[in-house]
Amino acid sequence: MASVTYPLLFLFAIAPSLIWLAFYLRKDAHPEPNRMILKVFLLGAFIAIPAIYLETFLEESLSSFALPRLAFLLVYFLLGIAFVEELLKYVAVRIGALSNPALDEPVDVMIYMIVAALGFAALENILLLFGLIKIYPASDVFLVNSIRFVQAVFLHALASGLFGYFLALAIFRKRHARLLAISGLVLATLLHGLFNFYIFTIGGKNFFFLLFPILPLLLIGIIVSREFRRLKLLCNKKLP
C-alpha cells in the first residue's frame, strides 16, 4: 500500500466531506447544535449501507429486462442509484432531525439534507478509496479523491441541498407541500442521475470530459446558494 497508512487513508477519504461541511455550515446564521450535526452526518453515512444492497438488487432486477445498454444505464443511474440515494438521505434527516426542537427554521431542513448527503458521501469515499488502494498506487488514489472533491462529493451536497430547498418551501406553502416535496425529489434525482450517467458513458473517455461537468455543477451551486439566501430572508420575515 505504498507507505500510506489506513488511518491516513481514512482521514483523506472523509476530508472532502468535512471541507464541504465546514463551507456550508458557515452559511447558517443560526448554527445548529453540534450533536445534531454529528448525528445526521453519521445517519447519512449509515444509510449508505442499505443503499448499496438496494442498488445491487435493482441492478440485477433491471438486467432481467434486456434493455439496450444506454437505456439500461440511464434507468439504473436515475432510479437505481440517484432516486434511491436521495430518498434514503431524506430518511436519515427525517429520523435524525425533523422531529427535533433544534430544527426551528425551515431553512434548517436544507442544512440537514446537505449534512446527511456529506455523511453519505464520506462512507462512499471510504469504501471506494480502501478498495482502490489495493489495486492502484497511492498517487492515483489521491488524484481520484481530489476529483471526487469537486465532483461526486459536491454533487451529493448539491442534489440533496436542492431537495432540501423544496422541502423548506413546502413548510411555507403548505397548500402545495406534497407537490413541492415531490418536485424537489425529482429534480435532485435528475441532477444526480444524469451527472452519473454522463461520467460513466462519456466522462471516462479523457480528462477534459471528466472535468467538463464541474462548470455546470458550479453554476447550479451558485443558483442554489442564491435561493438559500432568499430562503433565509423569508424565514426572517415569517418567524420571530
Automatic annotation (TrEMBL):
Q: Name one Pfam family in it.
A: PrsW-protease
The protein's UniProt keywords, in alphabetical order, are: Cell membrane, Hydrolase, Membrane, Protease, Transmembrane, Transmembrane helix
Which InterPro entries did the record assign? Peptidase_PrsW_arch/bac, PrsW
* Gene Ontology molecular-function annotations: peptidase activity
Q: Where in the cell is it found?
A: Cell membrane
Query: Signal peptide span per the entry?
Result: none
Instruction: Mark the transmembrane ranges.
Output: 6-25, 37-54, 66-88, 109-133, 153-172, 179-200, 206-224
This entry carries the following GO cellular component terms, namely: plasma membrane
Q: How does this protein sit in the membrane? A: Multi-pass membrane protein
Give GO terms for biological process: proteolysis
The UniProt similarity line reads: Belongs to the protease PrsW family.
Write the protein's name: Protease PrsW
Q: What is the lineage of its organism?
A: Bacteria, Candidatus Yanofskyibacteriota
